[in-house]
């Protein structure tokens, strides 16, 4: 499973040349929950953030 934090680390390893030293260590997986008031229309900022998260993590992970 991919974690949201792991996405940034994987990018740094690939792009910046960081070296993974604990490859066999099981990385913790965190749930990501996005909450907002349902009785209000979400702002453009909230919509953009939700779409960003869905694109990075995937709809089935939220």
Outline type: elongated
Specify the structural class. mainly alpha
Q: What number of structural domains do the residues give?
A: 2
Q: What does the main sheet amount to?
A: none
Provide a count of the helices: 2
Low-confidence stretches: none
Give the overall average pLDDT: 76
The total of beta strands comes to 0
Terminus-to-terminus distance: 12 Å
Task: Give the SSE string.
Answer: HH
Q: Helix content range of the residues, please?
A: 40-55%
Residues in β-strands, percent: under 5%
Radius of gyration: 15 Å
Notes on the protein architecture:
With 62 residues, the chain is mainly alpha-helical. The protein folds into 2 domains: 1-29, no CATH class; 31-62. It is 44% helix and 0% strand. It is built from 2 helices and no strands. It has helices at residues 4-16, 44-57. The longest helix has 14 residues, at 44-57. The radius of gyration is 15 Å and the shape is elongated.
In short:
This protein has 62 residues and is an all-alpha fold.
């Amino acid at each position: 499973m991919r974690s949201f934090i792991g996405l940034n680390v994987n990018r740094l390893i690939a792009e910046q040349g960081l070296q993974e030293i604990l490859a066999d260590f099981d990385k913790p997986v965190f749930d990501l929950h996005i909450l907002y008031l349902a009785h209000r229309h979400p702002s453009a900022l909230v919509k953009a953030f939700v779409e960003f998260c869905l694109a990075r993590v995937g709809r089935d992970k939220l």
